[in-house]
Batch of 3 targets.
Target 1
Amino acid sequence: MKIFLLKNKNGQIVEKAADIMSESSPWIKLGIKRKDCIKTIKSKRYDFYYACENRELAGFVLLENFGSFKGYIKILCVSEDFRGKGIGKSLIKKAEQIIFSHSKNVFLCVSSFNKKAFIFYKKLGYKRVGILKDFLVKGRDEYLMRKTKGPILKN
């Protein structure tokens, strides 16, 4: 498996990524449609890294590396066909490598109903630091999680 940065966010990889995302949880439960997935993936706010296995898109991660949430993992998505094979862990490790090169904190959100994802992130060293009530849609909360190497400021 290899991980690549997609600089030109047009074409088949984006289309396939949007298919994978819009056809899986938590995005189905949140009511996020394919057109919204494409819009998010194509946004200039996020760097798009993707993993391929046997020339097939296995998963991707979107990173926000500027602004208030510098060091934020916006989305981690792994195709259902590739789950349980270490793809998500590899994508998170790549994201952490990039983020920790310029920041002491990595942040992400996980839907409160997405128990498997919450456990996955906890095993990777993330801690819940807050709850965002009705953040994406009414009736669905998001847990803000953080992995840190220490405070931003030195005393």
Target 2
Amino acid sequence: MKPFKFDSVSKIETGFKIPDNYFENIKIDFNSTPEITETKIVSFSKKWRFLVAAMIVLGLSIPIFNHYIDTSKELDPTTISNYLNYGNALSDNDFAAILDEKDIQNLQINYKLDDKSIENELLNNTNLEQYIEN
């Protein structure tokens, strides 16, 4: 690592300048006392009415605010029912138009069933006739 020399680096000017003879022209008299002004003190007992009024207004406004601001994230059953009945207006052709070839290939499922497993399912399940008829 190269040694860093502070003397060789150009200095950045701060932008602050002290006028010539500034410190020589300052006159400070340590013997004089500064003027002391009295501050007006307001007691708490005089402001209690305003404090009570503010508390009443705040106490009444919180329930009103909570009534009009509903932060519930749950849907009511009517909204869910209407969406399920009428909200799905897209047909299969609409979905196919939106999806590209790669998405359609990802949706395809290849079931590899051998003849033995199909035969066992047909023999063991007696309700298959009802499914085929309906």
Target 3
Amino acid sequence: MSSLPIQVRDNSERLLTEDELCHLETLRKLAEPTIAKLSIEEHSNLLIFPQNLDVYGDKIGDAHIFEMKGDTVVTGNIMGFIGCGNTKVSISSRFTQGRDDYFLHYMLRKVFAVNLFDLKFNSDVESIFDFLIYLFPAFLKRAIQQGMYREYQTRMYNDANLKSRIDVSRHIRRNIPFAGKIAYTTREYERDNHLTQLIRHTIEYIAHHRFSGNILHNDDDTTNAVNAICQATNSYSRNERQKVMNQNLRPVNHPYYVDYRPLQQLCLQILRQEEMKYGCSDNEIYGVLFDGAWLWEEYLNTFLADIGFEHPRNKEGQGRKYIFSDCTGWCYPDFVSRDMVLDAKYKWYDDWSKVQTKDLYQVISYMHVLDKTFGGYVVPIKNRELRTSAKQLNGKGGLMSVFGVNMDCQADSFEDYLTCMEASERELAQEIEAYIAE
């Protein structure tokens, strides 16, 4: 049975080849559960973004990674890699040109604020799992903002500074004849614990990785967070890595240190990379998955915020807009500025006939409730010359348009692709500003 992943693209259909039919039973197993069910089952080797599945109320958890219709794989908005035993599926973006998945990696680079050029950008298993390393600084900094993780640890001492209960059996065994020392055991609220040790092991792993050691010092915040973990883990020992990983099999469930749970899961994924790349148990589901609609929205926010757009967040309760004048009922438009409301769509909208009715009504409702003159959609496009014309609304009026980030970047390297995409972003920002100014 081939160990190569089955290559598919999001929002598409592909018939399995004759050689791939041997994976049919396992593919059906992967297709059956919803994403929410996979998350609830807490497969320790499966990482799903966004981790809060209802982060924008988009019901991501109700979706499936893909569906099986006979011998055909039917994908939705989910991208990334998932496997079970020897069956591996790699889902790249349908907006990717060629085999190298520059578009997915570019969005991840922007959303997670990582700076990389040396990583291979194709959609094979090794590339996808290597990318987890580049997510580590963002997760670490977010967790450290909540303070250093602490928990009670049992410590055994044998000295003259008695602090807690005497460990009688150990005292007799070690201190007869009596020489002024007492064996005792304490419970201390420590920074040096199983989770901070796991983070330290991940730091040491990344520091010696062939490509990525420099990401631990990309900025002052990352450097400070790494130093804080190293200072807190004085008992670190390279030989105890497997023991520490086993101690972290149960997810952190602390009501205050909520951002340490995804960091813990990411650390385990990074340290298990070799196991994940080259196989694990027949029943274990493993991989890393990204919801395309969520990733597209977060990516757009990285540059629309620079031209005055607010990005309300449902899960965090930030930026809610009230529907009624008595401040009851609320909504969370994707992007709102002084004069415009925009909806992010991870779809081809190169013609008004392709705009779904529910999407049309949603933006019109936002324009009316928020009293905005301009509204529209931001989508990926293949050719800026084919830009959809604006339309005037009847009734109270208002102008609607479809804006696009040009995906038609023919690039021989990621550096060239990055330059092309940054130019597309600037063009879009200028287009929106000029549109409002007219």
